[in-house]
Amino acid sequence: MADIMMAAIDRGEAGERQVFHTGVSTVGQGGDDYLCGHCGRRMVHAMDLTRIEVPMVYECGGCGGYNVLPES
Ligand SMILES: [Zn+2]
């Protein structure tokens, strides 16, 4: 379990990728926590987003900013 700061992108950079609306809080079954790269809000709790194989953009439920997984 780690806190992972996501990489902030502009809405125009999302392209054709699917947008995952994290809403108030998204809680998984285990894994890492992901923080919004724009406002620092904890968007996703206990999920392993690296297992999602399709390119996704994560929308913060707090500031509405778009984020992607940081390069690993
Ligand atoms: Zn945010």
Walk me through this protein's architecture.
- The structure is a single chain.
- The two termini are 16 Å apart.
- The protein is mainly beta.
- The protein has strands spanning 3-5, 7-9, 18-21, 26-27, 32-35, 42-47, 56-59, 66-68.
- The chain has one domain (3-68).
- The chain has a four-stranded mixed β-sheet with strand order 1-5-6-4, with no helix packed on it.
- 0% of the residues lie in helices and 40% in strands.
- Bound molecules: zinc ion (ZN).
What is the topological layout?
Layout: E1 3-5, E2 7-9, E3 18-21, E4 26-27, E5 32-35, E6 42-47, E7 56-59, E8 66-68
Parallel strand pairs: 1-5, 3-7, 4-6
Antiparallel strand pairs: 2-8, 5-6, 7-8
The protein binds zinc ion.
Zinc ion (ZN) binds at residues 36, 38-39, 41, 60, 62-63, 65.
